[in-house]
Amino acid sequence: MGASRIIIIAVSAVAAIGIALIVHNIAVRPAAPHQAMAAAPAAIKPMTQVLVAKRDLPIGTRLAGGDIGWQAWPADSLNAAFITDGRAAQAAPATTGDAIARKASYVANQAAAAVTGGPMEALYGAIVRVPLVANEPIVQSKLVRGGEGGYMAIVVQKGMRAISIPVTTATGAGGFILPGDHVDVLQSHQGEAPAGGGRAPFITSTLMRNVRVLAIDQASQAAKNAQSMIGTVATLEVASADVEVLARAKAQGEVILALRAYSDAAGSPTRGVEEESQGANGTVRVVRAGKTTDETVSQ
């Protein structure tokens, strides 16, 4: 453990102890006569900290800070599937002083967890498999992580399909395409020679635009601080009606991925335009909505 982590934990512990001592001095002061005669409070149930959803979490949500948090839960109604902070159940605070001491201890533990990691931080990046409502306890069966069964089926949005294409460093932007990035899908191939003779034109096709990359090989997330990923297969998310476009392209030849800027990744994926290099006939082949037409251009 690094020196900075030890200092943070030590400062948190000292602060908690100091607050606890102050609260103790306040608590031991003699009670006023009318307070001593007050009726004894009802029995206080032990409470423990349970991990819950802090807001409604629909299917496919990737957990991050602010999505989940700790909440006091009666120990006698604790389910074995609930995720706790690992501490023993404690009685609910009976006085303001007890509440302050409990808060101080909680802050110290949270500070230590932020440095060393804890059960909440370990869930960041997991995908919600079953919808969760605010304040509902988190259970492992309602989450899925990368590498677990059904992960990709949850990540793919409704009406979309996951399709994989082969890539190399040359066709995959040098390996700088990471899961979560958006790309354009292109293909270049030689067309048919003109009827009157001459060299066959070379056709460059932009098959799809703004397609989300789901994974590189079997990795759905890049390693921490990774700037590139070298893989042989890229899994893309496309509309169900466009699966045939990429399947046909794979059969025709090499497919190229062009990385889009982060600021240019908004919106849904769309089909591209196929452009033929201008030959003697001065035409450009255009593909719109799956239909191909030859249009004359000025010389």
TrEMBL record:
Keyword Ligase: no
Top-rank lineage group of the source organism: Bacteria
Keywords: Membrane, Transmembrane, Transmembrane helix
InterPro entries: Pilus_assmbl_Flp-typ_CpaB, RcpC_dom, SAF
Region of interest: Disordered: 267-299
Domain SAF: 48-144
Cross-referenced Pfam families: RcpC, SAF
Residues passing through the membrane, by range: 6-27
Xref: NCBIfam families: pilus_cpaB
Identification of the protein by name: Flp pilus assembly protein CpaB
Taxon lineage: Bacteria, Pseudomonadati, Pseudomonadota, Alphaproteobacteria, Caulobacterales
